[in-house]
Amino acid sequence: RKIYGMDVVVIPTNRPMIRKALSDMVYRTEKGKFKAVVEEIVARHSTGQPLLVGTISIEKSELLSDMLKKRGISHDVLNAKQHEREAEIVAQAGRKGAVTIATNMAGRGTDIILEEGVAQLGGLHILGTERHEARRIDNQLRGRSGRQGDPGSSQFFISLEDDLMRLFGSERFLGMMDKLGMDDSIPIEHPLLSKAIESAQKRVEGRNFDIRKHVLEYDDVMNKQREVIYRQRREILEGGNIKNQILKMIDDVIDRAADTWASKNVYAEEYDLKGLAEYMESNVLVPGSVKQADLAGKHSDEIREWLAKRVRELYAIREEAVGSEVMRELERVVVLRTVDRKWMDQLVAMDDLRQGIGLRAFGQKDPLTEYKFEAYDMFNNMTESIQEEVARLILRVQLANKPLRRSVAVANPTPPSGGGGTGPARSAKTKVGRNDPCPCGSGKKYKRCCGQQ
Fold first, then answer.
1. With contact defined as beta carbons under 8 Å apart, do 374 and 359 qualify?
2. Which fold has domain 224-396?
3. CA count, 13 A, side-chain hemisphere, 189
4. Predicted confidence (pLDDT) per residue in 367-415, tens digit
């Protein structure tokens, strides 16, 4: 619920579960624990009851296998090294007298069918050689026994040298066992001890959850930015005419420029009209399209309206020169390429910010809050940069007129006037490559544009 905001419902079992969960057996050392595990396997194997022994690693499974070989116990080892036979080996674990050693990753999801007569022996016995940090994995191991109402049992053997016990209070138990003079072969068995171990697992799970949730909070910042960018790209790809969106981008550029050189918060005498005109000519409009005199005597709102009107006049001239169809394609190409390039730069910058934001904690600041503020500013800067580059490319691109585009696109096969040569005349212009940008200024490759004519 905390992450996905959804309710969780426990689905009841198809048939009543009658598997017995025995108390954990805790030993002082790992060596004493494995000796006890082997003795338990030998005792149960002698009755014909099948056993599935769970280990946390391949090394532990091979160590236990060597110990069973010395005792002459026939067994199968399933440690993710035998992918082809994995399901087959686990499926046979319910045979009378079968002993199967498996790591926690091996054979999950395979139905273990009990052989006839095994139910009377107590069903499949699960023997765990160590508790995992997550109870979920322990429950997966237990859940391989007692399926569909079958009998079964499970028990874990633990040592105070196990990783989980070392993390949470094994020194206290060691001191108690030393005072009582208990050797490695004597276990401690008590329901309260099992509850204490489960409590340690809960604390580990809580810590891991907090770590994952903290990482998710950082990821959410990037995900919100990603949703905005991807929504914008979808609108461009799926939509038709994006002219109004581009004009809105240019209006935003004009507003920011006016706020800088002709702000509403200052008197008209303090406007820097020369700086505004130079900025518009160098970044948005073509040279000579706006002069300081054109802006003189106007208030800030009037200046914005005049510049917006001038932009639309220039836009109409460009569209008439190249044609509406080519202009629509040019708009899509320019916006998509600009958004993609700026977004890739943003991803790199955000990753760099994420790597170093933890240092803010030394300044008594919350790194996550600082990351959100910095990311918000960076996203706004990226958006403004996209708008400015789109405005510059759309309005300042050099567009050739239609007759010139056609003459460039079509090869002239007319033979030379003098001599008897019959080959085609060579153009005096530099030859345009098929994959080069088209000289018409559409932004497309030559072979996809005028080269098709």
1. no
2. Helical scaffold and wing domains of SecA (1.10.3060)
3. 11
4. 999 999 999 999 999 999 999 999 988 877 665 544 433 333 333 444 4
